[in-house]
Amino acid sequence: MKRKILITGGSSGIGKEYAYQFAKLKKDLILVARNEIELKKIKKDLENKYKIKCEYLIFDLSKLDKINQLCKIIEKENIEILINNAGFGNRIPFSKTNYSITQNMINVHITATTLLTRAVLDQMIKRNSGKIINVASLAGYLFTSKSNIIYNSTKRYIIHFSKNLQDEIKKQNKNIKIQALCPGFTKTNFDKHAIFKTMLPRLPSFMYMEAKDVVLKSIKTLENRRVVYIPSFKNKILYFLLRLNFYR
Ligand SMILES: NC(=O)c1ccc[n+]([C@@H]2O[C@H](COP(=O)([O-])OP(=O)(O)OC[C@H]3O[C@@H](n4cnc5c(N)ncnc54)[C@H](OP(=O)(O)O)[C@@H]3O)[C@@H](O)[C@H]2O)c1
Q: CA torsion sign, 149 to 158 to 14 to 65?
C-alpha cells in the first residue's frame, strides 16, 4: 500500500500550506476538515499541478464519534507522516463559555491529536519509521487569563504529550520522530473567524509570519532531534519573554 501524509485542518492556513509543500515533494495526501468546497478545490489544484493523489475526508473533529470513525479509517492506511494541525481559538473568558465551546476545543486539540496519534502508532512501530507533527502554539507557554485559558492549556498539553511520546519511542529504539510545532502569530484564517472578531484589531503585520515560512521551517527541521520547534528568531524571543512571565 502506498505511503501517505495525513493532514488535519488541510482546508486552510498552515494545514493547506503543508499540503502544497508535501505535494511539491510528490507525496500522496489525505486531507481532513469540514469545508468540503475548499477541500475539493485544493484536491483538484494539487492533483493537476503536482500529479499526486490527494484524497479528502470530511470530519468534524470536535465530535468524539467522528474522531473514533476517522481512527478506524486511518488504522488501515499506510501513514508516513501524520500532521495534527486542526485547531481554533477564541477570546471568551472561561467563566463565560458554555460547555460545548470548551468541549469542542478539548476534542479538536487534545482528543483528536491523541487518538489519531494512537491510530497511526502501531503501523509506524511495525515499519520502524514515521513522523508526527503536532501543531501546538507559543500560547502553550502563556500563563495569563488575558487570552483564552483553554486554548493555552490545550496547546500546552500538545507540547507535553509530544515530548513524553518521543521519550517513550526513544526507549523502544524506534525511528519515529515527533515534532511539536509552536508557531507565533501566523497569517492564516485563524483570527478571522466570527468567534475571534470581538477581540482587539489585528496586530501590526511585522508580528506575523507567513504560513509558508512556518511550514518550510517545520519540514526542514523534521530530522532534528529536538521535539519542540519554534519557527523564526522573533518567535524565539517571544518564547523567552513568555518564559520570564513578561506577559503577565
Ligand atoms: N495562525 C496563528 O497565528 C497560529 C499560531 C499558533 C498556532 N496556530 C495553530 O495552527 C493550527 C492551524 O491554524 P491556522 O492558523 O492555519 O488557522 P485556519 O486557517 O483557521 O485553519 C484551521 C484549520 O483547522 C480546521 N478545523 C478547525 N476546527 C475543526 C473541526 N472541528 N474539525 C475539523 N477541522 C477543523 C479548519 O478546517 P474546516 O474549517 O474546514 O473544518 C482549518 O483547516 C491550529 O492548531 C492553530 O491553533 C495558529
A: negative
Instruction: State whether the beta carbon of 214 lies less than 6 angstroms from ligand 1.
Output: no
DSSP E strand boundaries for the chain? 4-8, 28-33, 54-58, 79-84, 130-135, 176-181, 186-187, 209-210, 228-229
Domain-by-domain residue ranges, the chain? 4-243
Please list the residues that pair with 186 across neighbouring strands.
209
CB-based contact 162:179 (threshold 8 Å)? yes
Q: Which residues contact 55 (CB under 8 A, 6 or more apart)?
A: 4, 29, 30, 31, 43
Looking at the domain covering 4-243, what would its CATH class be? alpha beta
Identity of the residue numbered 119: A
Return d(Cα 77, Cα 230) in angstroms, integer. 30
Mean pLDDT of the residues in the chain: 93
Nearest-atom index, ligand 1, CA of 35 = 40
Q: How far is the CA of 9 from the centre of ligand 1 (A)?
A: 6
Q: State the average pLDDT over residues 172-181.
A: 97
Phi-psi region of 130 (alpha: psi -120 to 50; beta: other; left: phi over 0): left
Tell me the C-alpha distance between 202 and 54, whole Å: 34
173 C-alpha vs ligand 1 centroid, how far in Å?
33
Largest Cα separation within the chain, whole Å, is 51
User: pTM for this one?
Assistant: 0.95
